[in-house]
Design goal:
This protein has 2 domains: 58 residues, Orthogonal Bundle (Helix Hairpins), CATH 1.10.287; 102 residues, Iron/manganese superoxide dismutase, C-terminal domain (minor pseudopilin epsh fold, 3-Layer(bab) Sandwich). A hairpin with a 5-residue loop joins strand 1 and strand 2. Helix 1 packs antiparallel against helix 3, helix 2 crosses helix 3 and helix 5 packs antiparallel against helix 7. It is globular, with a radius of gyration of 17 Å. It has 198 residues and is mainly alpha-helical. Strands 2-1-3 form a 3-stranded antiparallel sheet, with helices on both faces. Bound molecules: manganese (II) ion. The site of manganese (II) ion has 7 residues, from helix 1.
Length: 198
């Protein structure tokens, strides 16, 4: 059987649609160079690996080393780039995810505070995640490098990339300012879909 080829995801918005929160230049490098490199690397590593015909999530759950790192980064970035929309003032969660956030964190503001704190305090490169367990309970986690909560059987819902490549051109060392700004571009309809589809 032929080895499958992964392809660079298409952005569901224009490259400048997230400005001024994320610049066109950052999207160009982050999606067009960094994510493209993970796709190229994974495609180069797959032949002969035994993972040739597994889904991306299955590869992330089973692989180690370079295959895991590149597959994990593809999965992480597909969820990351897939969750945004143009900036919106007073952007709020909707539907069942809004109810679950209120239930599990007390309020949207408390949730945002805890999420940002975990993102700002993550040492080195990685991701902060909102995910759901099998009962729909929400939790926030810090994941290093290419890790994803799906490795532990959780459903990933929302993520902030805290690798420096995600913000350095626009915010330099001001990671907390970048994280604060991201709330205005979250597409809560997408997060709601991920939550209700699980
Ligand atoms: Mn990234």
């Amino acid at each position: 059987m032929a080895t499958q080829k992964f392809e660079l995801m298409s952005l569901p918005y224009a490259v400048n649609a997230l400005e001024p929160v994320i610049s066109e230049q950052t999207i160009g490098f982050h999606h067009g160079k960094h994510l493209q490199a993970y796709v190229n690397n994974l495609n180069a590593l797959l032949p002969g690996s035994g993972f040739e015909n597994l889904s991306l999530v299955e590869i992330v759950k089973k692989a180690e080393g370079g295959i895991f790192n590149n597959a994990g980064q593809i999965l992480n970035h597909e969820l990351y780039f897939g969750q945004f929309r143009s900036p919106k003032a007073d952007n709020q969660p909707i539907g069942q995810i809004a109810d679950a956030i209120a239930r599990d964190f007390g309020s949207f503001d408390t949730f945002k505070e805890e999420f940002q704190k975990k993102g700002a305090s993550l040492f080195g490169s990685g991701w902060v995640w909102l995910s759901a367990d099998a009962d729909g309970k929400l939790l926030i986690s810090q994941e290093s490098n290419a890790a994803n909560p799906a490795q532990r059987g959780l459903t990933p819902l929302l993520t902030f990339d805290v690798w420096e490549h995600a913000y350095y051109l626009d915010y330099q060392n001001r990671r907390p300012d970048h994280l604060t700004a991201l709330w205005s571009i979250i597409d809560w309809q997408i997060v709601e879909k991920r939550y209700t589809a699980k």
